[in-house]
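FAQ
Q: What does a multi-component entry look like?
A: The components come first, one per line:
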Amino acid sequence: MKKKMIAVVTMLSLAAGLISGCGNQNNDKKITIVGSTALQPLVEKAADEFDSKHEGNITVQGGGSGTGLSQVQEGAVQIGDSDVFASQQSGIKANQLVDHKVAVAGIAPIVNQGVTVKNISMEQLRDIFTGKITNWKQLGGKNQPIVVINRSKGSGTRLTFENDVMKGAEPMSAQEQESNGTVQQIVSNTPGAISYISFSYLRSQGIKSLSIDGVKPTSENVETNKWKIWSYEHMYTKGKPTGETKKFLEFMLSDKVQNSLVKEMKYISIHDMQVEKTPEGQVISKK
Amino acid sequence: MDEIKNKLLSKSRQTAEDRRGKILCYACLSLIVVLIASILYFITSKGIATFTENHLSIAQFFTGTKWDPGHKLIGALPMITTSFLVTILAAVLATPFAIGVAIFMTEYAPKKGTKALRAVIELLVGIPSVVYGYIGLMVVVPLVRKLIGGTGFGILAGTLVLFVMILPTVISLTADSLKAIPVSYRQAALALGATKWQSIYKIVLRAAMPGILTAIIFGMTRAFGEALAVQMVIGNAVLMPEGLGTPTATLTSQLTSQMGNTVLGTVSNNALWSLALVLLIMSLAFNLLIRFITRKGAIKR
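Then the predicted structure of the entire assembly, as C-alpha coordinates:
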Protein backbone atom coordinates (compact mmCIF):
# COMPACT_ATOMS: atom_id res chain seq x y z
CA MET A 1 0.00 0.00 0.00
CA LYS A 2 2.79 2.37 0.99
CA LYS A 3 4.62 1.69 -2.22
CA LYS A 4 1.49 2.49 -4.16
CA MET A 5 1.12 5.75 -2.36
CA ILE A 6 4.71 6.65 -3.08
CA ALA A 7 4.22 5.79 -6.73
CA VAL A 8 1.12 7.94 -6.94
CA VAL A 9 2.81 10.87 -5.24
CA THR A 10 5.85 10.72 -7.50
CA MET A 11 3.65 10.55 -10.53
CA LEU A 12 1.58 13.47 -9.35
CA SER A 13 4.63 15.61 -8.80
CA LEU A 14 6.05 14.50 -12.14
CA ALA A 15 2.84 15.45 -13.85
CA ALA A 16 2.77 18.79 -12.09
CA GLY A 17 6.34 19.41 -13.16
CA LEU A 18 5.44 18.57 -16.72
CA ILE A 19 2.60 21.06 -16.74
CA SER A 20 4.51 23.91 -15.15
CA GLY A 21 7.63 23.17 -17.19
CA CYS A 22 6.09 24.23 -20.43
CA GLY A 23 6.83 27.90 -19.92
CA ASN A 24 7.39 30.50 -22.57
CA GLN A 25 10.82 30.52 -24.02
CA ASN A 26 11.60 34.00 -25.06
CA ASN A 27 13.48 33.78 -28.22
CA ASP A 28 14.36 36.97 -29.99
CA LYS A 29 13.86 35.39 -33.39
CA LYS A 30 10.43 34.06 -32.62
CA ILE A 31 7.42 36.35 -32.87
CA THR A 32 3.93 35.41 -31.82
CA ILE A 33 1.07 37.62 -32.96
CA VAL A 34 -2.40 37.18 -31.48
CA GLY A 35 -5.67 39.08 -31.72
CA SER A 36 -8.14 40.73 -34.07
CA THR A 37 -9.59 38.38 -36.65
CA ALA A 38 -10.21 41.34 -38.95
CA LEU A 39 -6.48 41.98 -39.22
CA GLN A 40 -5.40 38.33 -39.10
CA PRO A 41 -5.47 37.55 -42.85
CA LEU A 42 -3.35 40.60 -43.67
CA VAL A 43 -0.79 39.83 -40.98
CA GLU A 44 -0.62 36.20 -42.05
CA LYS A 45 0.22 37.12 -45.63
CA ALA A 46 2.73 39.71 -44.56
CA ALA A 47 4.34 37.22 -42.17
CA ASP A 48 4.70 34.73 -45.01
CA GLU A 49 6.59 37.23 -47.13
CA PHE A 50 8.67 38.35 -44.19
CA ASP A 51 9.57 34.81 -43.21
CA SER A 52 10.81 33.91 -46.64
CA LYS A 53 13.41 36.67 -46.49
CA HIS A 54 14.41 36.53 -42.85
CA GLU A 55 15.34 33.72 -40.57
CA GLY A 56 12.56 34.74 -38.27
CA ASN A 57 9.72 32.54 -37.20
CA ILE A 58 6.32 34.19 -36.95
CA THR A 59 3.17 32.61 -35.59
CA VAL A 60 -0.12 34.41 -36.29
CA GLN A 61 -3.28 33.57 -34.39
CA GLY A 62 -6.77 35.01 -34.09
CA GLY A 63 -8.69 35.17 -30.85
CA GLY A 64 -10.21 38.63 -30.95
CA SER A 65 -9.09 42.12 -30.06
CA GLY A 66 -9.61 41.60 -26.33
CA THR A 67 -7.44 38.51 -26.31
CA GLY A 68 -4.74 40.25 -28.32
CA LEU A 69 -4.58 43.20 -25.96
CA SER A 70 -4.60 41.15 -22.76
CA GLN A 71 -2.02 38.69 -24.05
CA VAL A 72 0.41 41.40 -25.10
CA GLN A 73 -0.12 43.19 -21.80
CA GLU A 74 0.79 40.02 -19.93
CA GLY A 75 3.88 39.63 -22.08
CA ALA A 76 2.72 36.26 -23.38
CA VAL A 77 3.04 37.37 -27.00
CA GLN A 78 5.18 39.92 -28.80
CA ILE A 79 2.40 41.65 -30.74
CA GLY A 80 -1.30 42.00 -29.97
CA ASP A 81 -3.63 42.89 -32.85
CA SER A 82 -6.65 45.04 -32.13
CA ASP A 83 -9.35 46.94 -34.02
CA VAL A 84 -9.79 49.31 -31.11
CA PHE A 85 -7.54 51.65 -29.18
CA ALA A 86 -6.13 49.99 -26.08
CA SER A 87 -7.60 52.82 -24.00
CA GLN A 88 -11.10 51.86 -25.20
CA GLN A 89 -10.82 48.31 -23.90
CA SER A 90 -11.60 47.96 -20.22
CA GLY A 91 -8.98 46.18 -18.13
CA ILE A 92 -6.06 47.28 -20.31
CA LYS A 93 -3.37 49.63 -19.07
CA ALA A 94 -2.90 51.55 -22.28
CA ASN A 95 0.16 53.49 -21.10
CA GLN A 96 2.23 50.28 -21.00
CA LEU A 97 1.54 49.48 -24.62
CA VAL A 98 2.95 51.03 -27.75
CA ASP A 99 0.55 51.51 -30.62
CA HIS A 100 1.52 50.76 -34.23
CA LYS A 101 -1.28 51.62 -36.65
CA VAL A 102 -0.72 49.46 -39.70
CA ALA A 103 -3.89 49.96 -41.75
CA VAL A 104 -7.40 51.39 -41.77
CA ALA A 105 -10.59 49.41 -42.16
CA GLY A 106 -13.79 50.99 -43.43
CA ILE A 107 -17.15 49.75 -42.23
CA ALA A 108 -20.34 50.01 -44.25
CA PRO A 109 -24.01 49.33 -43.49
CA ILE A 110 -25.34 46.48 -45.61
CA VAL A 111 -28.87 45.37 -46.35
CA ASN A 112 -30.54 42.38 -47.93
CA GLN A 113 -30.76 42.56 -51.71
CA GLY A 114 -34.52 42.85 -51.62
CA VAL A 115 -34.38 46.19 -49.81
CA THR A 116 -35.00 49.05 -52.22
CA VAL A 117 -33.60 51.85 -50.06
CA LYS A 118 -30.18 52.96 -51.35
CA ASN A 119 -29.27 55.99 -49.34
CA ILE A 120 -30.08 57.04 -45.80
CA SER A 121 -28.94 59.75 -43.44
CA MET A 122 -26.66 59.15 -40.47
CA GLU A 123 -29.56 59.99 -38.20
CA GLN A 124 -31.86 57.47 -39.85
CA LEU A 125 -29.15 54.82 -39.51
CA ARG A 126 -28.93 55.61 -35.81
CA ASP A 127 -32.71 55.44 -35.46
CA ILE A 128 -32.75 51.99 -37.06
CA PHE A 129 -30.23 50.67 -34.57
CA THR A 130 -31.95 52.23 -31.58
CA GLY A 131 -35.25 50.72 -32.70
CA LYS A 132 -37.01 54.00 -33.56
CA ILE A 133 -37.43 53.14 -37.22
CA THR A 134 -38.78 49.62 -37.62
CA ASN A 135 -40.10 49.44 -41.17
CA TRP A 136 -38.44 50.15 -44.53
CA LYS A 137 -41.63 52.01 -45.49
CA GLN A 138 -40.58 54.82 -43.14
CA LEU A 139 -37.47 55.31 -45.29
CA GLY A 140 -39.30 55.24 -48.62
CA GLY A 141 -38.88 51.54 -49.27
CA LYS A 142 -41.23 48.57 -49.32
CA ASN A 143 -43.60 47.81 -46.49
CA GLN A 144 -41.28 45.36 -44.77
CA PRO A 145 -40.12 45.13 -41.17
CA ILE A 146 -36.45 45.89 -40.55
CA VAL A 147 -34.44 43.05 -39.04
CA VAL A 148 -31.46 44.47 -37.18
CA ILE A 149 -28.39 42.27 -36.90
CA ASN A 150 -25.67 43.50 -34.59
CA ARG A 151 -22.17 42.30 -33.93
CA SER A 152 -21.25 40.78 -30.56
CA LYS A 153 -20.70 43.15 -27.67
CA GLY A 154 -17.05 44.04 -27.43
CA SER A 155 -16.32 43.26 -31.06
CA GLY A 156 -14.02 45.86 -32.56
CA THR A 157 -16.27 46.47 -35.55
CA ARG A 158 -19.25 47.04 -33.28
CA LEU A 159 -17.32 49.42 -31.07
CA THR A 160 -16.29 51.46 -34.11
CA PHE A 161 -19.85 51.48 -35.41
CA GLU A 162 -21.18 52.62 -32.06
CA ASN A 163 -18.57 55.36 -31.73
CA ASP A 164 -19.09 56.70 -35.25
CA VAL A 165 -22.81 56.16 -35.75
CA MET A 166 -24.60 55.79 -32.42
CA LYS A 167 -22.82 58.69 -30.71
CA GLY A 168 -23.79 57.50 -27.28
CA ALA A 169 -27.36 56.44 -28.15
CA GLU A 170 -28.30 53.10 -26.59
CA PRO A 171 -28.56 50.39 -29.26
CA MET A 172 -31.65 48.19 -29.09
CA SER A 173 -31.29 44.54 -28.07
CA ALA A 174 -31.07 42.63 -31.30
CA GLN A 175 -29.57 39.56 -32.83
CA GLU A 176 -25.83 39.39 -32.45
CA GLN A 177 -23.47 37.57 -34.73
CA GLU A 178 -19.86 36.91 -34.12
CA SER A 179 -18.08 37.38 -37.39
CA ASN A 180 -18.18 39.36 -40.61
CA GLY A 181 -18.74 36.10 -42.44
CA THR A 182 -21.91 35.05 -40.62
CA VAL A 183 -23.30 38.57 -40.73
CA GLN A 184 -22.90 38.62 -44.50
CA GLN A 185 -24.46 35.16 -44.75
CA ILE A 186 -27.47 36.05 -42.63
CA VAL A 187 -28.16 39.42 -44.23
CA SER A 188 -28.11 37.83 -47.66
CA ASN A 189 -30.68 35.27 -46.50
CA THR A 190 -33.01 37.31 -44.33
CA PRO A 191 -35.53 39.63 -46.01
CA GLY A 192 -35.39 43.16 -44.65
CA ALA A 193 -32.16 42.59 -42.74
CA ILE A 194 -29.62 45.31 -42.03
CA SER A 195 -26.18 45.08 -40.47
CA TYR A 196 -22.68 46.45 -40.97
CA ILE A 197 -19.55 44.87 -42.31
CA SER A 198 -15.89 45.47 -43.12
CA PHE A 199 -15.19 46.80 -46.62
CA SER A 200 -13.32 43.59 -47.46
CA TYR A 201 -16.58 41.64 -47.32
CA LEU A 202 -18.60 44.08 -49.42
CA ARG A 203 -18.34 42.32 -52.77
CA SER A 204 -20.20 39.24 -51.55
CA GLN A 205 -23.43 38.26 -53.26
CA GLY A 206 -26.89 38.86 -51.89
CA ILE A 207 -26.05 42.02 -50.01
CA LYS A 208 -26.01 45.71 -50.89
CA SER A 209 -24.18 48.50 -49.17
CA LEU A 210 -26.03 51.69 -48.27
CA SER A 211 -24.76 55.19 -48.93
CA ILE A 212 -24.94 57.58 -46.03
CA ASP A 213 -25.95 61.19 -46.75
CA GLY A 214 -25.14 60.56 -50.40
CA VAL A 215 -21.58 59.35 -49.74
CA LYS A 216 -20.59 55.96 -51.10
CA PRO A 217 -18.49 53.57 -48.96
CA THR A 218 -15.20 53.67 -50.86
CA SER A 219 -11.56 53.79 -49.81
CA GLU A 220 -11.14 57.28 -51.27
CA ASN A 221 -13.98 58.59 -49.14
CA VAL A 222 -12.47 57.05 -46.01
CA GLU A 223 -9.12 58.69 -46.71
CA THR A 224 -10.73 62.13 -46.54
CA ASN A 225 -13.16 61.17 -43.77
CA LYS A 226 -16.13 61.87 -46.05
CA TRP A 227 -17.08 58.32 -45.11
CA LYS A 228 -17.07 58.52 -41.35
CA ILE A 229 -17.25 54.90 -40.15
CA TRP A 230 -13.73 53.51 -40.03
CA SER A 231 -11.16 52.33 -37.56
CA TYR A 232 -7.46 51.76 -37.35
CA GLU A 233 -5.97 48.30 -37.30
CA HIS A 234 -3.53 48.41 -34.43
CA MET A 235 -0.58 46.22 -33.59
CA TYR A 236 0.38 46.72 -29.97
CA THR A 237 3.70 45.87 -28.37
CA LYS A 238 4.56 45.98 -24.71
CA GLY A 239 7.12 48.75 -24.53
CA LYS A 240 9.23 49.71 -27.53
CA PRO A 241 9.66 46.83 -30.00
CA THR A 242 13.12 45.32 -30.40
CA GLY A 243 14.90 42.88 -32.67
CA GLU A 244 12.80 40.91 -35.12
CA THR A 245 9.57 42.36 -33.78
CA LYS A 246 10.77 45.83 -34.68
CA LYS A 247 11.86 44.65 -38.13
CA PHE A 248 8.49 43.03 -38.76
CA LEU A 249 6.57 46.14 -37.76
CA GLU A 250 8.75 48.21 -40.07
CA PHE A 251 8.02 45.69 -42.80
CA MET A 252 4.27 46.05 -42.17
CA LEU A 253 4.58 49.80 -42.67
CA SER A 254 6.87 49.55 -45.68
CA ASP A 255 5.55 50.75 -49.04
CA LYS A 256 5.75 47.20 -50.30
CA VAL A 257 3.13 45.90 -47.88
CA GLN A 258 1.09 49.07 -47.77
CA ASN A 259 0.77 49.43 -51.54
CA SER A 260 0.17 45.80 -52.44
CA LEU A 261 -1.12 43.53 -49.68
CA VAL A 262 -3.10 46.15 -47.80
CA LYS A 263 -4.90 47.28 -50.94
CA GLU A 264 -5.39 43.78 -52.30
CA MET A 265 -7.25 42.85 -49.15
CA LYS A 266 -9.43 45.97 -49.23
CA TYR A 267 -7.89 47.70 -46.30
CA ILE A 268 -6.81 51.30 -46.65
CA SER A 269 -3.12 52.14 -46.47
CA ILE A 270 -2.16 54.12 -43.42
CA HIS A 271 0.02 56.33 -45.63
CA ASP A 272 -2.94 57.43 -47.74
CA MET A 273 -4.98 58.75 -44.83
CA GLN A 274 -5.43 62.49 -44.94
CA VAL A 275 -6.99 62.64 -41.51
CA GLU A 276 -6.25 61.27 -38.09
CA LYS A 277 -8.66 59.93 -35.51
CA THR A 278 -8.06 60.18 -31.78
CA PRO A 279 -9.11 57.47 -29.34
CA GLU A 280 -11.97 59.79 -28.35
CA GLY A 281 -13.27 59.78 -31.91
CA GLN A 282 -12.17 63.28 -32.88
CA VAL A 283 -10.95 63.66 -36.42
CA ILE A 284 -8.10 66.02 -37.21
CA SER A 285 -6.73 66.64 -40.69
CA LYS A 286 -3.16 65.52 -41.21
CA LYS A 287 -0.67 67.98 -42.61
CA MET B 1 22.54 -23.61 -2.83
CA ASP B 2 23.17 -19.90 -2.69
CA GLU B 3 22.68 -19.60 -6.39
CA ILE B 4 19.22 -21.14 -6.25
CA LYS B 5 18.31 -19.03 -3.24
CA ASN B 6 19.42 -15.91 -5.02
CA LYS B 7 17.47 -16.82 -8.08
CA LEU B 8 14.36 -17.40 -6.06
CA LEU B 9 14.66 -14.21 -4.05
CA SER B 10 15.78 -11.79 -6.78
CA LYS B 11 13.26 -10.21 -9.04
CA SER B 12 12.61 -11.86 -12.33
CA ARG B 13 12.29 -9.99 -15.61
CA GLN B 14 8.55 -10.53 -15.47
CA THR B 15 8.23 -8.92 -12.07
CA ALA B 16 10.09 -5.87 -13.32
CA GLU B 17 7.86 -5.73 -16.37
CA ASP B 18 4.82 -6.09 -14.19
CA ARG B 19 6.03 -3.23 -12.11
CA ARG B 20 6.76 -1.01 -15.06
CA GLY B 21 3.31 -1.69 -16.43
CA LYS B 22 1.76 -0.71 -13.16
CA ILE B 23 3.77 2.49 -12.93
CA LEU B 24 2.77 3.41 -16.46
CA CYS B 25 -0.91 2.95 -15.61
CA TYR B 26 -0.60 4.97 -12.43
CA ALA B 27 1.23 7.71 -14.30
CA CYS B 28 -1.55 8.00 -16.86
CA LEU B 29 -4.17 7.88 -14.18
CA SER B 30 -2.58 10.55 -12.05
CA LEU B 31 -2.06 12.83 -15.04
CA ILE B 32 -5.77 12.59 -15.82
CA VAL B 33 -6.68 13.17 -12.17
CA VAL B 34 -4.45 16.24 -12.03
CA LEU B 35 -5.96 17.47 -15.27
CA ILE B 36 -9.55 17.07 -14.10
CA ALA B 37 -8.81 18.57 -10.70
CA SER B 38 -7.13 21.59 -12.24
CA ILE B 39 -9.95 22.13 -14.73
CA LEU B 40 -12.48 21.99 -11.91
CA TYR B 41 -10.41 24.32 -9.77
CA PHE B 42 -9.73 26.72 -12.61
CA ILE B 43 -13.33 27.10 -13.76
CA THR B 44 -14.70 27.29 -10.25
CA SER B 45 -12.23 29.90 -9.04
CA LYS B 46 -12.76 31.99 -12.18
CA GLY B 47 -16.50 31.47 -12.13
CA ILE B 48 -17.06 32.70 -8.61
CA ALA B 49 -14.81 35.72 -9.09
CA THR B 50 -17.82 37.62 -10.42
CA PHE B 51 -19.42 37.30 -7.00
CA THR B 52 -16.36 37.37 -4.74
CA GLU B 53 -14.16 39.94 -6.49
CA ASN B 54 -16.61 42.08 -8.42
CA HIS B 55 -19.25 41.77 -5.68
CA LEU B 56 -22.18 41.28 -8.00
CA SER B 57 -25.15 39.46 -6.58
CA ILE B 58 -25.75 35.78 -7.23
CA ALA B 59 -29.50 36.35 -7.06
CA GLN B 60 -29.25 38.87 -9.86
CA PHE B 61 -27.23 36.39 -11.89
CA PHE B 62 -29.93 33.73 -11.74
CA THR B 63 -33.03 35.92 -11.91
CA GLY B 64 -32.01 39.04 -13.85
CA THR B 65 -32.83 39.33 -17.53
CA LYS B 66 -30.47 42.15 -18.57
CA TRP B 67 -27.06 40.95 -19.74
CA ASP B 68 -24.45 43.64 -20.15
CA PRO B 69 -21.45 42.72 -17.99
CA GLY B 70 -19.57 45.81 -19.13
CA HIS B 71 -22.15 47.83 -17.21
CA LYS B 72 -22.36 45.34 -14.34
CA LEU B 73 -25.65 43.87 -15.48
CA ILE B 74 -25.30 40.10 -15.27
CA GLY B 75 -28.79 38.66 -15.58
CA ALA B 76 -28.18 35.21 -17.03
CA LEU B 77 -31.78 34.00 -16.81
CA PRO B 78 -32.52 34.31 -20.57
CA MET B 79 -29.53 32.14 -21.41
CA ILE B 80 -30.24 29.57 -18.72
CA THR B 81 -33.90 29.36 -19.77
CA THR B 82 -33.06 29.03 -23.45
CA SER B 83 -30.40 26.41 -22.82
CA PHE B 84 -32.89 24.30 -20.90
CA LEU B 85 -35.72 24.89 -23.36
CA VAL B 86 -33.80 23.83 -26.47
CA THR B 87 -32.33 20.85 -24.63
CA ILE B 88 -35.64 19.57 -23.32
CA LEU B 89 -37.53 20.25 -26.55
CA ALA B 90 -34.86 18.50 -28.60
CA ALA B 91 -34.97 15.50 -26.25
CA VAL B 92 -38.77 15.36 -26.35
CA LEU B 93 -38.70 15.49 -30.12
CA ALA B 94 -35.91 12.96 -30.50
CA THR B 95 -37.11 10.32 -28.02
CA PRO B 96 -40.03 8.79 -29.95
CA PHE B 97 -38.00 8.68 -33.17
CA ALA B 98 -35.03 7.16 -31.38
CA ILE B 99 -37.08 4.48 -29.66
CA GLY B 100 -38.89 3.65 -32.90
CA VAL B 101 -35.67 3.28 -34.87
CA ALA B 102 -34.01 1.34 -32.05
CA ILE B 103 -36.92 -1.13 -31.85
CA PHE B 104 -36.77 -1.57 -35.60
CA MET B 105 -33.04 -2.20 -35.44
CA THR B 106 -33.15 -4.75 -32.65
CA GLU B 107 -36.48 -6.50 -33.18
CA TYR B 108 -37.61 -6.26 -36.79
CA ALA B 109 -34.75 -5.54 -39.15
CA PRO B 110 -32.70 -8.36 -40.64
CA LYS B 111 -29.06 -8.51 -39.56
CA LYS B 112 -27.78 -6.80 -42.69
CA GLY B 113 -30.29 -3.99 -42.35
CA THR B 114 -29.23 -3.36 -38.76
CA LYS B 115 -25.60 -3.18 -39.77
CA ALA B 116 -26.27 -0.74 -42.57
CA LEU B 117 -28.45 1.42 -40.34
CA ARG B 118 -25.79 1.45 -37.66
CA ALA B 119 -23.17 2.59 -40.14
CA VAL B 120 -25.38 5.44 -41.28
CA ILE B 121 -26.12 6.49 -37.73
CA GLU B 122 -22.46 6.44 -36.80
CA LEU B 123 -21.78 8.58 -39.83
CA LEU B 124 -24.20 11.17 -38.47
CA VAL B 125 -22.17 11.38 -35.25
CA GLY B 126 -19.04 12.14 -37.23
CA ILE B 127 -20.40 15.19 -39.03
CA PRO B 128 -18.82 18.29 -37.48
CA SER B 129 -21.22 20.57 -35.69
CA VAL B 130 -20.34 23.54 -37.88
CA VAL B 131 -21.85 21.65 -40.81
CA TYR B 132 -25.07 21.10 -38.87
CA GLY B 133 -25.05 24.79 -38.02
CA TYR B 134 -24.52 25.78 -41.62
CA ILE B 135 -27.37 23.58 -42.81
CA GLY B 136 -29.45 25.05 -40.00
CA LEU B 137 -28.62 28.54 -41.19
CA MET B 138 -29.31 27.87 -44.84
CA VAL B 139 -32.27 25.48 -44.62
CA VAL B 140 -33.88 25.37 -41.19
CA VAL B 141 -33.95 29.11 -40.46
CA PRO B 142 -35.71 30.07 -43.73
CA LEU B 143 -38.12 27.17 -43.19
CA VAL B 144 -38.99 28.33 -39.68
CA ARG B 145 -39.36 31.87 -41.01
CA LYS B 146 -41.93 30.63 -43.51
CA LEU B 147 -43.75 28.50 -40.94
CA ILE B 148 -44.10 30.83 -37.98
CA GLY B 149 -42.89 34.19 -39.23
CA GLY B 150 -40.38 36.45 -37.55
CA THR B 151 -36.74 36.15 -38.55
CA GLY B 152 -36.58 32.39 -38.16
CA PHE B 153 -33.77 32.57 -35.64
CA GLY B 154 -34.65 31.25 -32.23
CA ILE B 155 -35.59 28.30 -30.12
CA LEU B 156 -37.46 26.35 -32.81
CA ALA B 157 -34.53 26.47 -35.24
CA GLY B 158 -32.13 25.54 -32.43
CA THR B 159 -34.36 22.66 -31.38
CA LEU B 160 -34.59 21.26 -34.89
CA VAL B 161 -30.82 21.37 -35.40
CA LEU B 162 -30.17 19.79 -32.00
CA PHE B 163 -32.81 17.15 -32.66
CA VAL B 164 -30.84 15.86 -35.63
CA MET B 165 -27.56 16.17 -33.76
CA ILE B 166 -28.58 14.13 -30.71
CA LEU B 167 -30.61 11.56 -32.63
CA PRO B 168 -27.69 9.20 -33.42
CA THR B 169 -26.47 9.22 -29.81
CA VAL B 170 -29.91 8.43 -28.45
CA ILE B 171 -30.65 5.81 -31.10
CA SER B 172 -27.47 3.82 -30.67
CA LEU B 173 -27.60 3.88 -26.87
CA THR B 174 -31.28 2.88 -26.89
CA ALA B 175 -30.57 0.05 -29.32
CA ASP B 176 -27.74 -1.15 -27.08
CA SER B 177 -29.98 -1.26 -24.05
CA LEU B 178 -32.73 -3.07 -25.98
CA LYS B 179 -30.22 -5.60 -27.22
CA ALA B 180 -29.04 -6.20 -23.65
CA ILE B 181 -32.45 -7.59 -22.65
CA PRO B 182 -32.05 -11.39 -22.47
CA VAL B 183 -33.72 -13.42 -25.22
CA SER B 184 -35.37 -15.52 -22.51
CA TYR B 185 -37.64 -12.55 -21.66
CA ARG B 186 -38.94 -12.46 -25.21
CA GLN B 187 -39.24 -16.22 -25.39
CA ALA B 188 -41.21 -16.33 -22.16
CA ALA B 189 -43.57 -13.64 -23.42
CA LEU B 190 -44.11 -15.46 -26.71
CA ALA B 191 -44.65 -18.74 -24.85
CA LEU B 192 -47.42 -17.09 -22.87
CA GLY B 193 -49.11 -16.23 -26.13
CA ALA B 194 -48.17 -12.56 -26.40
CA THR B 195 -47.85 -11.09 -29.88
CA LYS B 196 -44.52 -9.67 -30.94
CA TRP B 197 -45.66 -6.09 -30.38
CA GLN B 198 -47.05 -7.01 -26.95
CA SER B 199 -43.78 -8.53 -25.89
CA ILE B 200 -41.85 -5.52 -27.17
CA TYR B 201 -44.18 -3.01 -25.61
CA LYS B 202 -44.89 -4.70 -22.29
CA ILE B 203 -41.67 -6.58 -21.62
CA VAL B 204 -38.67 -5.39 -23.59
CA LEU B 205 -39.32 -1.65 -23.37
CA ARG B 206 -40.14 -1.80 -19.67
CA ALA B 207 -37.07 -3.86 -18.87
CA ALA B 208 -34.87 -1.53 -20.88
CA MET B 209 -36.30 1.63 -19.32
CA PRO B 210 -33.21 2.64 -17.30
CA GLY B 211 -31.05 2.18 -20.37
CA ILE B 212 -33.41 4.26 -22.49
CA LEU B 213 -33.49 7.04 -19.90
CA THR B 214 -29.71 7.03 -19.81
CA ALA B 215 -29.67 7.32 -23.59
CA ILE B 216 -32.00 10.32 -23.47
CA ILE B 217 -29.94 12.04 -20.81
CA PHE B 218 -26.75 11.43 -22.78
CA GLY B 219 -28.49 13.11 -25.69
CA MET B 220 -29.51 16.01 -23.48
CA THR B 221 -25.95 16.43 -22.23
CA ARG B 222 -24.80 16.72 -25.80
CA ALA B 223 -27.57 19.19 -26.63
CA PHE B 224 -26.85 21.29 -23.55
CA GLY B 225 -23.17 21.57 -24.34
CA GLU B 226 -23.45 22.11 -28.06
CA ALA B 227 -22.17 25.55 -28.94
CA LEU B 228 -21.35 26.19 -32.56
CA ALA B 229 -24.38 24.81 -34.37
CA VAL B 230 -26.78 26.46 -31.94
CA GLN B 231 -24.92 29.74 -32.08
CA MET B 232 -25.49 29.91 -35.82
CA VAL B 233 -29.26 29.56 -35.62
CA ILE B 234 -30.32 30.92 -32.24
CA GLY B 235 -29.85 34.61 -33.06
CA ASN B 236 -27.58 35.47 -30.14
CA ALA B 237 -29.63 38.24 -28.63
CA VAL B 238 -29.64 37.97 -24.86
CA LEU B 239 -33.39 38.43 -24.55
CA MET B 240 -35.99 36.39 -22.72
CA PRO B 241 -37.51 34.09 -25.38
CA GLU B 242 -41.01 35.35 -26.17
CA GLY B 243 -41.86 32.55 -28.53
CA LEU B 244 -40.28 29.83 -30.57
CA GLY B 245 -39.25 32.23 -33.30
CA THR B 246 -37.64 35.17 -31.52
CA PRO B 247 -33.88 35.55 -31.33
CA THR B 248 -32.36 34.57 -28.02
CA ALA B 249 -29.10 33.05 -26.74
CA THR B 250 -27.88 29.97 -24.92
CA LEU B 251 -25.11 29.72 -22.34
CA THR B 252 -22.76 28.12 -24.83
CA SER B 253 -23.50 30.45 -27.71
CA GLN B 254 -22.85 33.45 -25.49
CA LEU B 255 -19.60 31.96 -24.27
CA THR B 256 -18.20 31.21 -27.71
CA SER B 257 -19.25 34.49 -29.25
CA GLN B 258 -17.94 36.67 -26.43
CA MET B 259 -14.74 35.04 -25.19
CA GLY B 260 -12.46 36.66 -27.76
CA ASN B 261 -13.71 40.14 -27.07
CA THR B 262 -13.11 40.38 -23.35
CA VAL B 263 -9.96 40.95 -21.37
CA LEU B 264 -8.88 38.46 -18.70
CA GLY B 265 -9.76 39.71 -15.24
CA THR B 266 -12.46 42.23 -16.18
CA VAL B 267 -16.10 41.91 -15.10
CA SER B 268 -17.14 40.97 -18.64
CA ASN B 269 -14.66 38.11 -18.65
CA ASN B 270 -15.49 36.89 -15.15
CA ALA B 271 -19.19 36.86 -15.97
CA LEU B 272 -18.47 34.55 -18.88
CA TRP B 273 -16.57 32.24 -16.55
CA SER B 274 -19.64 32.19 -14.33
CA LEU B 275 -21.64 30.97 -17.33
CA ALA B 276 -19.01 28.29 -17.86
CA LEU B 277 -19.36 27.29 -14.24
CA VAL B 278 -23.11 26.90 -14.65
CA LEU B 279 -22.46 24.66 -17.66
CA LEU B 280 -19.96 22.60 -15.72
CA ILE B 281 -22.34 22.13 -12.80
CA MET B 282 -25.12 21.16 -15.18
CA SER B 283 -23.03 18.52 -16.92
CA LEU B 284 -22.01 17.15 -13.53
CA ALA B 285 -25.69 17.01 -12.60
CA PHE B 286 -26.53 15.16 -15.81
CA ASN B 287 -23.77 12.66 -15.06
CA LEU B 288 -24.97 12.08 -11.53
CA LEU B 289 -28.49 11.58 -12.85
CA ILE B 290 -27.24 8.90 -15.24
CA ARG B 291 -25.42 7.11 -12.40
CA PHE B 292 -28.53 7.29 -10.26
CA ILE B 293 -30.76 5.89 -12.98
CA THR B 294 -28.46 3.03 -13.94
CA ARG B 295 -28.07 2.04 -10.30
CA LYS B 296 -31.81 2.05 -9.72
CA GLY B 297 -32.33 0.03 -12.88
CA ALA B 298 -29.73 -2.51 -11.84
CA ILE B 299 -31.53 -3.23 -8.59
CA LYS B 300 -34.86 -3.67 -10.33
CA ARG B 301 -33.60 -6.23 -12.77
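Q: Is there any commentary attached?
A: Sometimes. For this entry: The longest helix of chain A spans residues 2-21.
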